[in-house]
């Protein structure tokens, strides 16, 4: 099974503040998707993008959202007693938050936000040989409105509409066809991870379900579940 989540720290209620109510549907969708993955397997690989580039993060890792305003500690393995890494990248913080309560043990696989499509597809093909649940973490465009982090870019709507359709239809070819340069222009943290998903899903038939898609704060957020057909 594959689950796709966004990575806003405001998913964590302690960080959402007054936005907790506004983001309840998004948070509920993320929790529901993670629970479904946890019901299938307790061995997860979380894929995300980070400026530090390509690397693997061991499950025996803990991190904290302290840099975002609250010292909420998360673990990639519920049994971990490792020192807390205050610089654990956001997609893995969100993966740890999503895995909490599922019993899952999560290995992180990070790629650069501007990783070439071919590199992403190759990593996905490699991951496809492992009997794991795949958790793909990343946001859409951060330029949907004038108040968005990247201000307004009219290309954001069509970009995230295309992503939402591909996730809904489990269309890995459409994800593989995303333009890295456009994703970079639109500040999409999800483009590279989604193309890792495309590489992992190629050669098999899937059914997709889109649990959430929107841009409540000018950033595109998508929650989806893919199951083998």
Number of helices: 8
Radius of gyration: 16 Å
Largest sheet: 7 strands, mixed
Structural class: alpha/beta
- What's the pLDDT, averaged over the residues? 96
Q: In which range does the helix fraction lie?
A: 25-40%
Order of helices and strands: EHHEEEEEHEHEHHHHEE
What share of the residues does DSSP label as strand, in percent? 15-25%
- Contiguous runs where pLDDT drops below 50 for at least 5 residues: none
* Measured distance between first and last alpha carbons: 10 Å
Task: Give the overall silhouette.
Answer: globular
Strand order of the largest sheet: 3-7-2-8-1-10-9
Topology, number of strands: 10
Note down, in words, how this protein is organized:
The protein is of the alpha/beta class and 229 residues long. Helix content is 34%, strand content 22%. The protein has helices spanning 13-16, 24-40, 90-99, 117-127, 156-169, 172-176, 180-185, 191-201, and strands spanning 2-5, 43-49, 55-57, 62-64, 73-75, 84-85, 105-111, 133-137, 206-214, 221-228. The chain has a seven-stranded mixed β-sheet with strand order 3-7-2-8-1-10-9, sandwiched between helices. A three-stranded mixed β-sheet has the order 5-4-6, with helices on one face. Strand 4 (62-64) and strand 5 (73-75) form a beta hairpin. The longest helix has 17 residues, at 24-40.
